[in-house]
Specification:
By secondary structure, the protein is α/β, with parallel strands linked by helices. The chain is 36% helix and 23% strand. Helix 6 links the parallel strand 8 and strand 9. Helix 1 packs parallel to helix 2 and helix 5 runs parallel beside helix 6. The radius of gyration is 16 Å and the shape is globular.
């Protein structure tokens, strides 16, 4: 079984669209261990619609769109690492909540969940100004925790893509490859994701898992 944990440098950075894109092109199942916020649809529902992937049920479904530790407190739920186990799949994309240091409870973070699951991380970062600092800090946290990192995917507006200076700095100081650069799709639908193919360097990296 090959599995990859998609985390980000921030909330709303593009993890879900990246996860849908990966599921579609890598032909992987999808799993969101913790869903915070249920109104207006969930990430799992959106992934199913966009990618057609097999979606495995969340371990925790929390009503409020907050950090998992806050949302769990409001719902009267205690999130415990021992409750998480990998669903059976040949290939699996796991999407975290927020960034890698987002708390699950008052002891454990997303980093601890990655370690518990034995996952390799893929870091999603924005493409514009400020991304070097945020990306390298997140990479440092992952490496300090002993979580292997496959690489970085940058998501940005047209005109920010192909920013060689940012990409080269992240690869140099973060010591990991930038494996792909995704645009902010004008229209987000299955056809748009299908038309934007995976670069060869990302395909090779996924095959190495």
């Amino acid at each position: 079984m090959k599995h990859l944990f998609v985390t980000g440098t921030d909330t709303g950075i593009g993890k879900t669209i990246t996860s849908a894109w990966l599921c579609k092109h890598w032909q992987a199942d999808y799993w969101k261990p913790v869903q915070s916020g249920l109104d207006g649809g969930t990430d799992s529902q959106w992934i199913a619609e966009l990618s057609g992937a097999v979606v495995h049920p969340e371990t925790y479904r929390l009503t409020q769109p907050l950090s998992p530790h806050q949302a769990a407190d409001i719902d009267g739920v205690k999130i415990q690492l021992g409750d998480f186990s990998l669903p059976q799949a040949q290939r699996l994309i796991i999407e975290g909540a927020g960034g890698c240091l987002v708390p699950l409870n008052w002891r454990d973070t997303m980093l601890d969940l990655m370690k518990h699951l034995g996952s390799c991380a893929l870091l999603v970062a924005r493409g514009g100004l400020g991304t070097i600092n945020h990306t390298c800090l997140s990479l440092q946290a992952l490496k300090t925790a002993g979580v292997p990192v496959l690489g970085v995917i940058m998501v940005g507006q047209q005109g920010q893509l192909g920013n060689a200076a940012n990409r080269e700095a992240i690869e140099h100081f973060g010591e990991v490859p930038v494996l792909a650069e995704l645009p902010h799709f004008g229209t987000v639908n299955p056809e748009a994701l299908a038309e934007f193919g995976m670069p060869e360097r990302l395909v090779r990296a996924l095959n190495s898992l």
